Amino acid sequence: MPENNQEDVRTDRDYSVLWKMGTIFVITLILLIPASLIKGLVNERQNTKSEAVAEVGDKWGTDQIITGPILSIPYKTNHSNSFTNYLHVLPESLNVNGKIIPETLNRGIFEVAVYDSQSTLTGQFQLPDLKKLEIQPENLILDQARLNLGISDMKGIQDDVKVKWNNADISFEPGISHLHKDVLKTGISAPIELSLSPVEQNLNSTNFQIQLNIKGSESIAFVPVGKETNVRLLSSWNSPSFNGDFVPKERTITESGFNASWVVTHLNRNFPQYWQNSRPDLNSAAFGVDLFIPVDNYQKSERSIKYAILFIGLTFLVFFFIEVRNKRPVHPVQYSLIGIALCFFYLLLLSVSEHLSFNLSYLIAGSSTIILVTGFTKSILKNTNLTLMMGSILSTLYLFIFMLIQLEEYALLTGSVGLFLILGLIMFFSRKIDWYRLNNTMKI
Fold it and tell me: pLDDT tens digits for 377-391?
């Protein structure tokens, strides 16, 4: 009979511990709801920033892609005299020397990088073998040729654009001529008068020089239309991000700005040097530079929220072991309040990081949360040593999460090793707990 009573008491306590663990687990899952809402808020703020950037771009000029110049020559066939066929020729060489003058504009609390660019485009054209194309030289309508230059956002054009061709200055006109709209969607064109060499059956004097001054925001890119394309960009912006299909052959980045140069040949890209009436995708080969603003608070805030379940779960686990080992009961309501405080950390981090650097914001939000939870722990446990231990554990957890956020390539490795060590510590400190014979005076 006494053995039965002892077994009943043990079973009741066992169910009591399981009930408490289940309650903590449910509270942890419920707290993931506000954590996910905060994550949604991060995405919303990111969208708000994108809208601010787009609004500034609509007024100043969006990111610019410069394509060309492209020489378009109409020609007749032997079967028809209508000008329905066109030969499009890319430059034999293209050299771009550009200077980017950046500045930042504020739209509310958001910063947007904008720029004025001054680019000089030089090069020359050469006709392909007309016999291979089955085009008779006399069928070329040379006096109706057009020089097309693609500019992705026409609002950014500041001055009259002219091309120096055969030592004559020719003004560009709005719109693309002879080219399909899916080759160049927007841009400008200029009428060019061409002449053929009677001996070589090629174009006479096709050197060109174009001075292009345009405004834009965030990025500028060039399409390597030359058989050999050389691009050199200078700027006082000291945090560039080079983008596109090609990386700079040479680049120098200092506190005073950057200097980058590219060399691309026609063999590096996926479209021909000339075509007839076809529609190659030119912009797929664009390359250039982003005026990167090193503010990644939204990305880092989102990454920190991904560890919410880990952080809340480990904090609750520490409180649970304090209950078990030190007979200091913590009510489920108190668990909930502590969990809500931990969730507010992410809201503080997001809101403060919009005005200060992420690292400083993390320090402010983390310190505030540690002070709040530690003070509440003192009122619950009535024990200074346990309170200090709890504050130290929270500080270590926040430091661990901060390291994971900062690390990108080694985040998985660091997180795996860290969690393995945490599991080892939990197993070490719980090794002497007799889960079947908890003290009768403990109320869980």
Answer: 888 888 888 888 888
